[in-house]
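Input record, target 12 of the design panel.
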């Protein structure tokens, strides 16, 4: 997300590299390095973190720590545990479709609350650093990047549940949470225009190779996924 645009709430996956100047971090699956991680951002500022090593959602800013009750972190931990489980299942499913060993699953979803009151949402999944499937909020349609993703697209659109779930989250739940987080950190986040929020999630397969990741602006730059074996 571009910090010059209205506010956003986002959760990001591994290896999102919209800006080559963004610092990169290398990770390899071994003891002490989490296989799954979920980080929440508001306007590019990390505010929450969950990983499979610590096993609990935690605040990354003092204003998030002061602003929410213990029950919030309990519920976020449960949500992240569910995401961790689903990510592993999805990773194994796609491994079978490509007939090869994939090592990473990355997921990015979030919303912009524009200064004119409009909401802009984004949902995107990648595997091993390559685009897999994304969701267009305007048309409520999924867009597949290749034949393997087309199987998922047909399944989701046939069932209809996933499109409804993403639409509800991106248009309603995400902006509501964004407004709440901005209220908690109003002094630190105060600026003209809108706000942004996002969630960054990634999963590294147990015996995968090393991978690089960085987090930077997302709009208006196009998304790029990068994997290094």
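The sequence produced for target 12 reads:
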């Amino acid at each position: 997300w571009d910090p010059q645009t209205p506010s956003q709430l986002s959760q990001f996956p591994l290896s999102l590299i919209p800006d080559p100047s963004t610092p990169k971090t290398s990770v390899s699956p071994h003891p002490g390095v989490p296989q799954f991680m979920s980080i929440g951002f508001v306007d590019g500022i990390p505010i929450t973190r969950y990983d499979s090593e610590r096993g609990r959602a935690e605040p990354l800013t003092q204003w998030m720590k002061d602003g929410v009750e213990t029950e919030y972190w309990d519920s976020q931990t449960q949500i992240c545990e569910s995401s961790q489980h689903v990510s592993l299942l999805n990773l194994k499913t796609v491994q079978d479709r490509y007939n090869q060993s994939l090592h990473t699953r990355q997921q990015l979803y979030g919303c912009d609350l524009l200064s004119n009151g409009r909401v802009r949402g984004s949902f995107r999944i990648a595997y091993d650093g390559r685009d897999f499937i994304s969701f267009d909020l305007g048309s409520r349609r999924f867009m597949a990047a290749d034949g393997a993703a087309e199987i998922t697209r047909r399944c989701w659109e046939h069932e209809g549940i996933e499109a409804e779930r993403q639409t509800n989250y991106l248009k309603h739940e995400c902006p509501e949470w964004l407004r709440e987080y901005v209220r908690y950190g109003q002094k630190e986040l105060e600026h003209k225009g809108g706000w942004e929020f996002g969630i960054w999630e990634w999963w590294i397969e147990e015996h995968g190779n090393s991978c690089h990741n960085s987090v930077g602006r997302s709009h208006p730059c196009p998304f790029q996924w990068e994997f290094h074996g």
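The first strand starts at residue 7 and ends at 11.
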